[in-house]
């Protein structure tokens, strides 16, 4: 009658079970098989349990090639190890096997690493694997059969993680799976459909696919942990639920009717065939057709199924779309969309938000719609764009038509960008660029290399960037910042037509005495001032007794006002209209009043005042240069309810609980919300979302903003 086998002493030979063995226990001893032998060979045994409390080493660690016995269990206990020098760590051929690892399994094969597996089960059904320890191998697990149950709470460090071949597979990971190749691959081998479920609350990190569904089974991938790497779906009506997790990779939809639910992270979904349901959730989410030979037809403003050659698809909470290499038709929604056409004669329509449109090559129609929209021509091709033209123009990327576009971004070549009568932002990037703002209050940014910037009429901001730049403010009160290099500011009149004042912070104010010509320009990082009759080198010699600064009080009208302070501590109030307020030097107070105002404090510790009725559409202001730890924001408690009390004479501090950094309030105490990814500042009346949050202002993105920047008046 078979009896248990117990290894109680170290041995330098293989443990080979015979029909007399009913089970095997390896005590805390060392079993080292010679070259050509396995650590434990249980093929001829009767199928009893194997328990390892010590260490086992051989060409294979533990092998059982028999398929003619009932199921049994192999357990590697805590502190124990199984090491394979030339093959699998544990290899079992029968079905119904249960392999439990609380210790360490390591497998290697210098000759054929691709055929080396930490745990291999070749049986047909009802196999179970539990890993709470560590597995190190070119492939951690390869499990065959139906009704598989695999649980990992430990650590897997492998070339490939978990490979299954069968149907009705359940994989649960709360540990760490880190792979140079694939993380989890579920292959459906039987002709009938099954249900494979992967639940991840831990981490799956892979250089290739983190998760792949390779077969016609129905797969459910539920992630509330971290997945790094692409997720690839093939046939079957599959589900990816990432509402509570993070995916850093592309989710490739499959051939059938798939469903994707996104969460708070920024997700990328590659569209494929079938009637798919895609809900991006929170975050900035992208649907891409990149590289496809079938045109994308997408309207993000439609919340029901929309038909195209790809199927009848639903897109919800999607911000960005990337098209195919064909002629795409992509429309945005009310949000800030990034629409990319790639190749082909594309039609991109932005909608109502502040959108960015990238047509790519060929002849594109870029229609920004409402909002402040940007056409992006980044790349190495020289770009020529004139926003005054309503018809097709040769931009260098194709014969493109631009409608309702306010801003242009170009790439690393030598570009020529011309604005229109709107307030434009023209960004040249690298290369020797020529930027002309035209009418409107423009921002021109030359970027690297030697650029020529011409603001034109009105109040402009010119930024030279790197290189030796030439900056011409033109009419209006402009701001010229040369950046690095030897930069030149050019004025149209003679030297005696201008008053030049060096301010306390080293910047220079150049004021034209001739009315209606160059106005008063503020110069920073400028080395040369060129007039019609001479050129001055900065810095200028200092006066022996410079005059004391004058503190100004400037109050606008109900119309559009342009108010500029000096080098004192000034008070600027815009009243009504879409005003432009510039503080200059000193500790200034800027109050936009009603309207869509643009407020620039410049140097000093400035105060921005919000004391009018809130309206997301007609009253948010733009703060161009808010500096944390220097500037502050005052909020009137008559309009900002629930933020505390204060007065002009004695401003009160905003409580820490009333401020939240995120896309929206997260609890009932939140009132002031800063979305750092977009630079948007909101007021939430109740902190619960029952009442919609109200846009207050647009600030620079990603400020280290906190409650300390806000005071109540």
From TrEMBL:
Taxonomic superkingdom: Bacteria
Map out region (Disordered) in residue numbers.
Answer: 438-488
An example Pfam family from this entry, by short name, is: HemolysinCabind
Q: Which InterPro entries match?
A: Hemolysin-typ_Ca-bd_CS, Hemolysn_Ca-bd, RTX_toxin/Mannuronan_C5-epim, Serralysin-like_metalloprot_C
Q: Could you tell me where this protein is found in the cell?
A: Secreted
Q: Which UniProt keywords apply?
A: Secreted
Drop me one GO molecular function for this one. calcium ion binding
Q: Where is the composition biased (Gly residues)?
A: 463-477
Main localisation: secreted
GO-annotated cellular components = extracellular region
Designated name of the protein:
Putative calcium-binding protein
